[in-house]
């Protein structure tokens, strides 16, 4: 991934924020040049036209026609009480929600001119005669530039900032400067009231014990809440790029808590954020020291012959590869697999794939591929650029320009609690997934010394995707049904990558779609699917119970003679902060 996080040095930090638009525009220009073949053997003189002259003329004519209408409308509104035209805001765009943007002609014209220019740039890119991937890149970089250049991002052109400064007699500007200074020390934008949360106090509070640890993971066994539990345990593999407690945010908002309450024997991997001593770890190490070792410990503690396993996002990719390794080794240790918003086929990766190319991966391999660390802050900043208005510029305006104190929001606290990765592991992952898409092909990768073939995983699989997921497009997740050998059930949740997954039944929010017939393409599946209100969690629990091996008396303690409790959950690893 090519985006760099804000630097801890004040000058560089400010430049990384306020020059984001310039950097994005340079990327946009470079992409245009590359698409046109300028500077390569293929030039414009060879007859290739990125934008035909007639198209450019039409776009310019339309732009000036609409701009004239806005100027004329502004004049009529000011002096004759007339109406003016509006460029519609995108759904969910809250940058211009203040009534001043509509009622005062100056700010309305400023907004309308910006929106018109934005629309014209989008249309300009959409008409480019380039391949699909290049067009997606152009759209992404154009949006980065458009988002950065919004008049709402600058104090002189944001009426809310000006009004706040007048109302507070400039105290808001002073507070904003202090917020900026504080963030300079952190090297990142503060998006949440971090004093409101503490892991182990009001986050990750489901009772349990750490029963195993190595230099990469701690394994948590949760305390049963029912008199009987499922004989077959459940191992949860969270993503290694985030802290695990997204799945255990707090009472009433925890998938872990829910699973325990339904009578599952729940174990969970807590990944350790990379430190210099673990900067040498590879992808194979993550499989061997992560789920492969955890499965053995779970089976030893419970005495079960097999375990259920659940993976979320990258954790699902890791779990699937580990399951394929077990299959190649003729080890039948899994009863079912659940994959939540997981990609195994990286043909369509959405916008995040646009940030990974040959040059960026080669650079990483040269710098940290043999050892080193990819900082968690860099990963977090990269993901933030995918939704820059919501995750970057909103907080620049509220915190630095208005001097506001961020709200207390558990999901944002979790999202800001980043995890660093070992360089060798990260480089293998990006090359074999986003760049070359090797994992899906039988035998194309050697992992843990064996050829990996996902079709050899012959256990039932529950696949969940989220309809508005910008990290794992749901149609990509749908394709996993054709890669894993076991019988599949596919469920589509409403909302995005996180909110679609974390949806407790008691809140009765959102919905999900179900269709047992998977013999179609994704759109055909969706067209025939039935929408069900509320959470998908009960459907998953029912599916798990359909594959039950029966119930046993709940154990009265965690661990066993071989693996005795080390410390209470949530353990040390999840509390460690990354650099």
Structure notes:
The chain is built from 19 helices and 17 strands. It folds into 2 domains: 10-166, no CATH class; 208-345 and 432-575, Alpha/Beta hydrolase fold, catalytic domain (Rossmann fold), CATH 3.40.50.1820. Mean pLDDT is 86; it is low at 1-8, 35-57 and 78-85. Helix 10 (283-302) packs across helix 11 and helix 10 (283-302) packs across helix 16. The two termini are 18 Å apart. Helices cover 41% and strands 12% of the residues. It is globular and about 70 Å long. The strands form 4 sheets. The chain has an 11-stranded mixed β-sheet, sandwiched between helices. It is α/β, with parallel strands linked by helices. Strand 6 (307-312), helix 11 and strand 7 form a beta-alpha-beta unit.
What does the secondary structure layout of this molecule look like, with pairings?
Elements: H1 10-18, H2 20-36, H3 53-79, H4 100-103, H5 105-126, H6 132-148, H7 159-167, H8 171-186, E1 208-213, E2 217-222, E3 228-230, E4 234-237, H9 255-261, E5 266-271, H10 283-302, E6 307-312, H11 314-328, E7 334-340, H12 358-368, E8 373-374, H13 376-385, H14 388-401, H15 410-416, E9 421-422, H16 423-435, E10 446-447, E11 450-451, E12 461-466, H17 474-478, E13 488-493, E14 511-514, H18 522-528, E15 530-533, H19 537-546, E16 551-553, E17 567-568
Parallel strand pairs: 4-5, 4-6, 6-7, 7-12, 12-13
Antiparallel strand pairs: 1-2, 1-17, 2-5, 3-16, 8-9, 10-11, 13-14, 14-15
Helix pairs in contact: 2-6, 3-5, 5-6, 8-14, 10-11, 10-16, 12-16
């Amino acid at each position: 991934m090519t985006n760099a996080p804000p630097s801890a040095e004040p000058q560089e930090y400010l430049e990384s924020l306020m020059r984001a638009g310039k950097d994005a525009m340079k990327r946009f220009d470079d992409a245009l040049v590359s698409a046109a073949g300028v500077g390569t053997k293929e030039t414009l003189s060879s007859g290739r036209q990125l934008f035909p002259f007639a198209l450019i003329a039409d776009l310019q004519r339309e732009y000036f026609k609409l701009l004239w209408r806005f100027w004329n409308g502004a004049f009529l509104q000011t002096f004759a009480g007339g109406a003016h035209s509006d460029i519609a805001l995108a759904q969910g765009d809250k940058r211009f929600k203040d009534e001043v943007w509509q009622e005062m002609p100056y700010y309305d014209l400023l907004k309308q001119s910006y929106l018109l220019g934005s629309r014209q740039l989008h249309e300009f890119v959409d008409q480019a005669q380039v391949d699909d991937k290049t067009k997606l890149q152009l759209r992404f970089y154009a949006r980065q530039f458009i988002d950065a250049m919004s008049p709402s991002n600058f104090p002189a052109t944001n009426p809310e900032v000006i009004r706040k400064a007048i109302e507070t007699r400039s105290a808001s500007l002073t507070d904003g400067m202090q917020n900026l200074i504080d963030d300079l020390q952190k090297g990142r934008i503060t998006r949440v009231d971090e004093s409101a949360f503490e892991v182990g106090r009001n986050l990750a509070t489901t009772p349990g014990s750490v029963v195993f640890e190595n230099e990469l993971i701690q394994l948590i066994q949760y305390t049963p809440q029912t008199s009987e539990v499922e004989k077959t345990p459940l191992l949860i593999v969270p993503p290694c790029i985030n802290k695990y407690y997204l799945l255990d945010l707090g009472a009433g908002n925890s998938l872990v808590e829910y699973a325990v309450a339904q009578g599952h024997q729940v174990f969970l991997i807590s990944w350790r954020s990379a430190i210099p001593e673990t900067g040498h770890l590879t992808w194979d190490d993550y499989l061997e020291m992560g789920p492969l070792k955890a499965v053995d410990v779970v089976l030893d503690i419970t005495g079960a012959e097999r375990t259920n396993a659940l993976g979320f996002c990258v954790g699902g990719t890791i779990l699937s590869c580990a399951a394929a390794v077990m299959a190649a080794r003729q080890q039948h240790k899994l009863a079912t697999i659940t994959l939540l918003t997981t990609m195994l086929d990286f043909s369509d990766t959405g916008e995040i794939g646009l940030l990974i190319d040959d040059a960026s991966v080669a650079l990483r391999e040269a710098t940290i591929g043999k050892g080193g660390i990819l900082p968690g802050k860099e990963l977090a900043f990269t993901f933030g650029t995918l939704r820059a208005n919501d995750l970057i510029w909103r907080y620049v305006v509220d915190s630095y320009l208005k001097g506001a104190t961020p709200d207390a929001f558990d999901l944002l606290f979790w999202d800001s609690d980043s995890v660093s990765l070992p360089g060798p592991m990260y480089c293998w992952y990006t090359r074999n997934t986003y760049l070359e898409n090797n994992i899906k092909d039988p035998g194309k990768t050697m992992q843990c010394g064996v050829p990996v073939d996902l079709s050899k995983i012959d256990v039932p699989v529950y696949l969940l995707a989220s309809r508005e997921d910008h990290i794992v497009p749901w149609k990509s997740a749908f394709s996993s049904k054709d890669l894993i050998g076991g019988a599949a059930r596919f469920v589509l949740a409403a909302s995005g990558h996180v909110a679609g997954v974390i949806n407790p039944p008691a809140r009765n929010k959102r919905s999900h779609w179900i269709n047992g017939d998977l013999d179609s393409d994704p759109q055909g599946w969706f067209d025939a699917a039935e929408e069900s209100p509320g959470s998908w969690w009960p459907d998953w629990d029912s599916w798990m119970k359909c594959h039950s091996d029966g119930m046993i008396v709940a154990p009265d303690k965690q661990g066993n003679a071989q693996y005795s409790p080390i410390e209470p959950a949530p353990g040390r690893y999840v509390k460690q902060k990354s650099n």
